[in-house]
Amino acid sequence: MDGLFSQLVVLGASGMLMTALIVLWRRGVPAYITAYRWQSWLLGGLTACVAYFGRDPALYFVAAALILLKGVAIPFLLRAVERRFGAQREVRPYVNTETSLLAAGILVLFAYALARPWMAVTMLPTRAGLPLAMALLFVSLFIIVSRKKAITQLVGFLMLENAIALLAVVGTYGVPLLVEFAVFLDALMGFLVMQIFIYQIHETFDTIDVEQLTRLKH
Amino acid sequence: MIEAIAVLTQTLAFVALAPGLTGFIRWMKARLQGRRGAPVWQPYVELRKLFAKERVVSKTASWVFRAAPFVVFGTSVAVASLVPLVFVPTAYDRIGDLFAVVYLLLLGTFFLALAGLDTGSPFGGMGASREMTVVALTEPTVALSIFALALTAQSTNLGDIIRQTVAEPVRALGTGHLLAFTALFIVTLAETGRLPIDNPSTHLELTMIHEAMVLEYSGPYLALVEWAAALKLLIFFVIAANLFLPWGVAFGWSPARLILAFLLIVLKVGMLAVLVAVLETRVAKLRLFRVPELLSASFVMALLAVLSTFLLR
User: Fold this and answer.
1) Quick one: average pLDDT of B264-292?
2) What is the pLDDT of residues B4-56, one digit of tens each?
3) Is B170 touching A (CB cutoff 8 A)?
4) Domain limits of chain A?
5) Model's pTM, two decimal places?
6) Are the C-beta atoms of A24 and A104 separated by less than 8 Å?
7) What CA–CA distance (Å, rounded) separates B188 from B212?
8) Which of A86, B92, B126, B179 is the most buried (most CB within 10 A)?
9) Are B301 and A21 an interchain contact pair (Cβ–Cβ within 8 Å)?
10) DSSP 8-state assignment for residue B95
11) Residue numbers of A between 18 and 77 with CB closer than 8 Å to B
12) Closest CA in chain B for residue A2
């Protein structure tokens, strides 16, 4: 039973990592949003799985909230932002695709090495998900720093938030419900604030390319 | 002795079923695109037609051009005899492992590229150069994803990998297997010239890869090359199906098990074929310069698969 549980956790976590890798390869904003939606659904499913095997009914609510908020609401809002600006493509990220994929590979290796001592001390059946959650954390940070468009950076931020949620779920079977919801609301607020920023950037510069922000200096 | 006959029968089944798979994918694609499509057995009819035609060989062609179709077809059949389709042989299992499979297939590709260069036609050279670019990128990916499987099973032998996965079914859900499967699937599309890397249904287009190499072939030569291409597709599908989802592969000789195994492999390969048909209907061909990006993505996945099996044990 434990074997199946830990394999399911690993499966979900590696699926989430794969969606982050897909983002590194794809260029269109709709593909970014789709990848984020898949990742959130996987996170929701994984949380429900932990709730079932860890016998923690409160986590079912967390899973439902995750799917509603991150799997449905935020992608919907992202689509609205994307539609408003038309077809914005991440044509030239700071790092080209091959290099960023290889960099992601190295980051994952780094995360695995970093999580090794941690895996040695914990005995949870979900511990195999820890290195993957760390890897997702690093890869989404890399997405944020290597992209130029505000909206793709936003997707990177949301993936980072997903990675932290994943870390909480596999590392400690989830934090208390209250804290979890506070984090959700924080993320939602952060998202809304960033959305307003994107609109402002677009209004001022006629583009959401953050490189243009350097023009503010003059 | 019984096993030798069984292996022979299995290989013949491989060779006989391969054009059917190509026909099925074509038919499925046609249905998905709202066309009626040629019947599933159309490739067999085409092969018979090609075998009856005369061979036209360019004056500048050397023996390489004449030998290549036989090498390509021969290596494919040899590989087919190594891959377990419905049952895992016990004694004949030791002849070749995954590395033999990969490099025999590569030998065929190499000769096809040589034949493309041999006649000196511009299209042939272009196709050969592109094919070599793609193969140079897919080959390390195949080796790595196989390495990931071999690390879990502690053996590169196909039969051993299948046995290990059947013995420990939860392993098949691990990160390593998942990533290796994705990498191998992308490589399958690249190696067998499917969309989005190459377009299997067009001739005389500047973007073609496989078709450009075999452009000079006609008659029975072309039939052999086409048949070998179909066989290669089936081999990759069976490897993907039987190594990653090995349930149903027979280990013994009871007829019921063998029939069940056959039905299951038809089902599994059919599912992969439907997946490819849906994919080919949905995606457009990539620009040639984006192909290395896709292949490096699959390489990174294979690398992560190895890392995961190695570090997450």
Assistant:
1) 86
2) 888 888 889 888 989 999 999 999 989 998 888 888 899 999 999 999 988 88
3) yes
4) 2-217
5) 0.82
6) yes
7) 19
8) B179
9) yes
10) S
11) 18, 21, 24-25
12) B170
